[in-house]
Specification:
Blueprint lengths: L1 H14 L4 H15 L4 H36 L2 H13 L4 H14 L4 H19 L6 H9 L2 H4 L6 H10 L7 H28 L8 H12 L5 H4 L1 H12 L4 H16 L6 H29 L3 H11 L5 H16 L2 H18 L4 H11 L10 H9 L4 H30 L1
Helix pairs in contact: 1-2, 2-3, 2-15, 3-14, 3-15, 4-5, 4-6, 5-6, 5-7, 6-7, 6-11, 6-20, 7-10, 7-21, 9-18, 9-19, 10-21, 13-14, 15-18, 17-18, 17-19, 18-19, 19-21
């Protein structure tokens, strides 16, 4: 019971907006206490061992990703790509324009925390011209950024990279399943938003600007943009070096960083500040994720967890189903897709590999499952997205929930179904 109570406490603390960097070790301490383990020895031993191991494996990736995102942001490159894509599609296809721009930036390695601020101004322009409700903007961003890029073949996203460490796979794992699920997830999310927009239009609900939005639109109109064909080059470099030359993901991202600096040198006013802020963002992100992973280090040494692992892995039916359930639940408890998939893989991967399950489908199911319950109301990315769009949970979370929880679950079922047929 100690393990379950500790995870329940983690959920409650995160819901109460306690930072995960505090909530995770506190929950780990409760887990150790209720499991009859020495609290301080467990925190400095099992907890820190797991936490440090994660940082050791992924700090460089977090660092280069954060710096890359910062370069694309401050240089105006991300904004230019989004604006070009959005305006080419026009107001008639405003939702598609926003989601495609978000997809391109995310698949190219730009952090969700960065692209929201880059895409939002473009979304305002398109939604104003199309007279669509601003309540749909977070959903349109989510449809592009939080769907296909997480599970698509060759993506440098953490949810696609982390399983490779524990399963011995690559970011190209289960390619056909990946492509089918990505296309389905992306399309169904956009169709949902189009349906909602038509329903809102029938009720006379359209674009309602605020004084703040009017000022922002004016500032954006005066902003000097980078040529979009030049702006997209660093993203293309990452994708080509990662998937074409099979370069290590850290080196591929570094190539993107160097290319960005070379191309946008004149557009980056403060070069050193870009490095400093990017590094700070990396430290914040990896600490939040690794603290959640540390709980797995404690869980692994409890007798209760051993029982739970056996129960989950012996779940009736295919082990693919129990694997999907386990990753989904753990990611939901952590409130983080990357943290949840790392925790699930570090504690359960060996068990499933020993059962003879193909590691490629385990990888693909994990990348789909970890994004089902990680986006509950207290999730940091959800909160940032709504705040950046100047909307409340009441106004916008319904659409985020439908896409990142309900449709994500449907997509997970599709992934498992394909796995059962093909593997």
């Amino acid at each position: 019971m100690g393990v379950l109570i500790a995870f329940a406490l983690l959920v409650i603390l995160i819901y109460k907006k306690v930072p995960i960097i505090v909530a995770a070790p506190l929950s780990a301490a409760v887990m150790a206490l209720l499991s009859g383990l020495p609290v301080m020895e467990t925190l400095t031993g099992g907890y820190m061992d797991a936490m440090v191991a994660f940082i050791k494996s992924y700090f460089i990736l977090f660092l280069v990703c954060a710096v890359f995102g910062r370069i694309m942001d401050v240089s105006g490159a991300a904004y230019s790509i989004g604006k070009w894509l959005g305006l080419r599609l026009g107001a008639k296809y405003a939702i598609w324009g926003v989601s495609i721009a978000a997809f391109v930036l995310t698949y190219g390695g730009v952090s969700c925390f960065v692209l929201v601020f880059a895409i939002y101004p473009i979304a305002l322009v398109l939604f104003k011209e199309a007279n669509l409700s601003r309540k749909l903007i977070p959903g349109a961003i989510a449809a592009g950024a939080f769907t296909a890029p997480n599970i698509l073949w060759g993506s440098p996203g953490l949810c696609n990279v982390i399983p490779t460490t524990y399963l011995g796979t690559t970011v190209k794992a289960a390619p056909l399943v990946s492509v089918i699920c990505s296309i389905f997830f992306y399309l169904v999310s956009n169709f949902y938003l189009i349906y909602e927009s038509k329903k809102m239009a029938k009720h006379g609900e359209g674009f309602v600007p605020t004084e703040k939005i009017t000022r922002l639109l004016k500032e954006c109109a005066e902003k000097e943009a980078i040529n979009p064909l030049v702006a997209i080059i660093p993203i293309a470099v990452i994708i080509v070096t990662l998937n074409g030359f099979n370069l290590d993901v850290n080196l591929a991202m570094l190539c993107g960083v160097l290319t960005g600096y070379l191309l946008f040198w004149k557009n980056i006013t403060d070069k050193m500040d870009t490095l400093i802020v990017g590094s700070q963002n990396a430290i914040s992100s990896i600490m939040n994720t690794s603290t959640a992973v540390g709980i797995g280090g404690v869980a692994k040494i409890t007798s209760t967890f051993t029982y739970l692992v056996n129960w989950v892995s012996n779940f009736s039916g295919s082990p693919m189903i129990s694997w999907a359930v386990a990753v989904t639940v753990i990611s939901g408890a952590c409130g983080s897709g990357s943290g949840g998939v790392a925790l699930a893989c570090s504690t359960l991967a060996d068990k499933y590999l020993a059962m003879g399950v193909n590691p490629e489908i385990l990888h693909r199911i994990a990348s789909c499952a970890c994004i089902v319950l990680d986006s509950l109301p207290w999730n940091g990315v959800m909160i940032t997205t709504m705040q950046a769009c100047d909307l409340t949970h009441k106004e916008a979370y319904k659409h985020l929930f439908m896409i990142t929880v309900v449709l994500a679950f449907v997509n997970l079922c599709l992934c498992v179904g394909l796995g059962l047929i093909m593997y």
